[in-house]
Design goal:
This protein is α/β, with parallel strands linked by helices. The chain is built from 14 helices and 14 strands. The strands form two sheets. Strands 3-2-1-4-5-6-7 form a seven-stranded parallel sheet, with helices on both faces. A seven-stranded mixed sheet has the order 10-11-9-8-12-13-14, sandwiched between helices.
């Protein structure tokens, strides 16, 4: 078969990793596969850019080219950044700019209608992953699902609500959103049009036929309570796979030396897209827990590796925090899991957590928060330790308990 996968990104984040693993597995079984993405970061031939600007009006394309002249100045001064946004969006497409200002989710991505023309051969199957991130027109789902089977793997609950990728404790997504308690949650909106957004999604789904996969029972329970259900032809819980030829235990001492770490040093690991800046992973709880654990351990001198975004190393008490850039290679990523003594995960919300599964496959113990689908992966006090979200003291105690008991 010819299979086209669609995702925000072809490299960064858990969804991209899952899609790439499926790509390799499908190709090994003789299928032809491509990945269409909003942002292409790799040089892989099978990664195809969804170029929405190509299909905009002549006026809009001219405005976009003009705005690009300000690119070198955008990060240095606030003025050019605001002017860039106004020219690229406000001047190029006033109606779209007004709708975004009113809090309506932006679906103005014309390349979505030409999606099936993107690969060199027409797809037999379309497999969608993350659809937020500013590149996909959700209104195309009814048309696409009439032309070929459309599969959707949900990596978060964004499809179920009026704007956010994770509603946390809010349950207004069950009844129509509106009066949103937090418009700043990613993807943020400027005004509360969440009821409109919810209703528009419900109407799109009612005209679509989709085949859904959720990586956890936790997420599937939410799908079954949502306005997405009228679109569902079939739905299954399919946990994300881990390649055991890559993620498996190895000698920690030799790997520490290879990564420039003293073999006797105790290593704690955290990994997330955007590193400490990831809003869902609660890096500050980890930071406080590591500080407290380092003060409690007799040997001290912990190394805490924050993998995801490079930065200047720092010391907090007896612990060094080393900020390491994102690793695109799965083998390079596995080396960190294999070298670490503990993997730490303080997420506020989680629909699966591939990092925890990969860490466990590498034989590295996990300390994680008891949220979302994590209890489906970690059996507390059997295959790892869990603490309540935000409980840095409990996480510190768990770190010390495991490091003092080989």
């Amino acid at each position: 078969m010819n299979i086209l996968q669609v995702n925000t990104d072809d490299v960064a984040g858990g969804a991209a990793s899952v899609a790439r693993g499926l790509q390799e597995g499908l190709r090994a079984r003789g299928h032809r596969c491509w990945m269409a993405v909003g942002v292409r970061r790799s040089g892989e031939e099978d990664a195809l850019t969804i170029d929405n600007d190509r299909y905009r009006s002549l006026w809009a394309r001219g405005c976009i080219r003009t705005a690009s002249l300000l690119d070198p100045l955008r990060g240095k001064f606030p003025g050019p950044g605001r002017l860039y946004t106004w020219i690229k969006l406000g001047l190029a497409s006033p109606r779209r700019y007004w709708q975004i200002g009113e809090g309506k989710e932006d679906f103005d991505y014309p390349a979505t209608a030409r999606l099936l023309e993107l690969p060199p051969a027409r797809p037999d199957v379309l497999h969608l992953h993350n659809l937020h991130g500013g590149y996909f027109d959700l209104r195309a789902l009814p048309s696409l699902s009439r032309k070929l089977p459309v599969f959707v793997t949900l990596h978060d609950p964004w499809l179920l609500g009026g704007h956010c990728a994770h509603p946390f404790l809010c349950e207004r997504w069950k009844t129509g959103c509106g009066v949103c308690p937090d418009l700043t949650l990613y993807p943020a909106v400027r005004k509360d049009a969440t009821a409109f957004n919810w209703q528009r999604k419900a109407e799109i789904y009612a005209a679509s036929r989709l085949y859904l996969a959720a990586p956890s029972r936790w997420l599937m329970d939410r799908i079954e309570q949502s306005m997405l259900m009228p679109a569902v032809g079939e739905a299954r819980v399919i946990p994300h796979g881990v390649d055991l030829s890559v993620f498996h235990p190895r000698d920690k001492g030799s790997l520490k030396r290879r990564l420039g770490i003293e073999p006797k040093r105790r290593v704690l690991l955290y990994a997330a897209s955007d590193g400490p800046a990831n809003p869902y992973k609660d890096f500050q709880t980890l930071r406080r827990a590591v500080d407290r654990a380092a003060r409690s351990l007799e040997s001290g001198n912990l190394l805490f590796i924050a993998l995801g975004k490079e930065g200047q190393s720092e010391w907090i008490g007896n612990a060094e925090i080393r900020y390491v850039s994102f690793e695109r290679s799965r083998k390079a990523m596995a080396a960190y899991y294999q070298a670490a003594d503990l993997y730490l995960h303080a997420a506020k919300a989680e629909t699966f957590c591939l990092a925890i599964a990969e860490s466990m496959a590498c034989g590295t113990a996990v300390v994680a928060t008891r949220v979302g689908a994590i209890p489906e992966l970690v059996a507390d006090r059997e295959t790892g330790l869990m603490v309540p979200p935000g409980d840095w003291e409990g996480m510190a105690r768990a770190i010390v308990a495991l490091l003092e008991n080989d």
